[in-house]
Amino acid sequence: MLAAKNLEVVYDDVMLVLRGVSLEVPRGRIVALLGANGAGKSTLLRAMSGLLDVHDGEVRRGEITLDGVPIHHLGASRIAARGVKQVMEGRRIFVDLTVEENLRVGAHARPRTVKVNLDRTYQLFPVLADRRKKVAGYLSGGEQQMLAIGRALMSDPEYLLLDEPSLGLAPLIVQQIRDVIVEINAAGTTVLLVEQNAAMALAIAEHGYVLENGAMVMDKPAADLLADGDVREFYLGLGAEGAARSFRDVKHYRRRKRWLS
Amino acid sequence: MNEFVATVVRGLGSGSIYALLALGFVIIYKSMRVISFAQPAFMMAGATLVSHLVLSMNFFLAVLVALLLTALLGAGVERLALRPMIGRPVFVIAIITLGVDIVIRTVVNSFIGLDIRQMGDPWGLEQVGVLGANIDQRHLATLITTLIVVAALFAFYRWSRTGLAMRAASSDQEVALAQGVSVGRVFSLSWALAAMLAGLAGVFLSTGIGLEQNLWLTALKALPVIILGGLDSLGGAVVAGLSIGVVEALVGSYGGDLHPVFGGDFFLVVPYLLMLLVLLVKPYGLFGTREVERI
Ligand SMILES: Nc1ncnc2c1ncn2[C@@H]1O[C@H](COP(=O)(O)OP(=O)(O)O)[C@@H](O)[C@H]1O
Ligand SMILES: [Mg+2]
Questions:
Q1: CB–CB of B235/B77 below 8 Å?
Q2: B167 touches chain A (CB under 8 A)
Q3: Which of A83, A130, B227, B246 is the most buried if burial means most Cβ atoms within 10 Å?
Q4: Which CATH architecture has domain A1-83+157-174+182-222?
């Protein structure tokens, strides 16, 4: 199990962004983490994958444990080697490398099984197989997201941390990504899915958390979250009367925030 | 015609040296986004080591040992002087490399002394006939070795796991970390490679004519070369290095009185002129990419 316990994270020594957050990702599951922009979702993922350093962030209190062993003091490359892999927000593929080179870098932590994992990845994402020699920067947004996920899978991680994989993608592509996540999970990889698309995330997760302003405000089975009035209003855009107006407002607000951040 | 061939080969010889030096600058730039001014020091260290080692061993073995030691020196400098500075402004780091350069060169100079040191190389100033032209063997040796080294370097970057990791780290450091790449190792390796290439350049620069303290100035010629080729392009470093070498040689041979003010020394200005001309048309150099930081 991958878990965060009473986690406090500070950026630049002063900005307290996570205030005692706890979360559990049991092996084999899909766990959803919801929350508005700026709630601290990406920060939590960075703490789990060891990437806080890069952002001048630091775990002040609490811990991240992998099967009970604290890992938050390890560097990112060590954590990746232990089987915890993060797919970052905004896809972040190596634009000047080819598709296959991107995938090979993903296998860096596990060089001996490159061939098997390449075959498996191409089976999971046939579109990548067709474009294997292509420079990755020329792929479409959906293809780039698949490449980012495929790249993370290249080292056979036990835990896959996905940061808003549906961001900016057309509904049809979002469905594809959703199906792929289910398939990956069925093949044995545990998934922590961070999403603003709550409907998509809760449709496939067993359990869900809601983060607000750096604190966990809900921790429930996905079905309960789907039925919850507040979640329906704020994250699914379905007010008491199913008002679409508020949804558009929220979305507009989010978009502006994203552009600013 | 014969003189022309001889001039071109001579230009390719010195161009190879510029290319080796420039490759080092580019390798470090790609990994750290910093221009390291310590390259002249590694160049001098490599050559000086060879000039001492040949006293007790075969020249080629001496070169091999010297290059390994120079690579270690490069990695050591990175670990001790540069790594603790990561995150500081690029300008600060560049000045630190300048300090490193001066420290190492001062030490190396005491091992060179005031006289010219012989390198003990097998070719000296011997010549060989190629296409009816008399050509210095050392220029040919430089060119051929450089081509082999460049091919090996490109193969390394293209196909090896480590080379690929270095390219990935250059493209997006955070994501490379997330894939398990140790970015610290990438830095060390970049410095080791850059130091080794500079050392090799130093060895070839001093074969035949011998080694003396002022030779380090040649390393500065790599600066217009990297701007011309594009700061982040390995291929650009090679093409620009060879081109500048050849143009410089041609101007030196045929353009003696091309310009009344510079007279016979006009060829010294040529690399910078070439650089300026290319920058007017291609702001990022011949093969550079756009994201490179600008003032
Ligand atoms: N590198 C950083 N330095 C300082 N503050 C940051 C940094 N990254 C994120 N933050 C701040 O931390 C808070 C949480 O951000 P983040 O974890 O990215 O939220 P989310 O992923 O939920 O949108 C925001 O207020 C954001 O401004
Ligand atoms: Mg985020």
A1: no
A2: yes
A3: B227
A4: 3-Layer(aba) Sandwich (3.40)
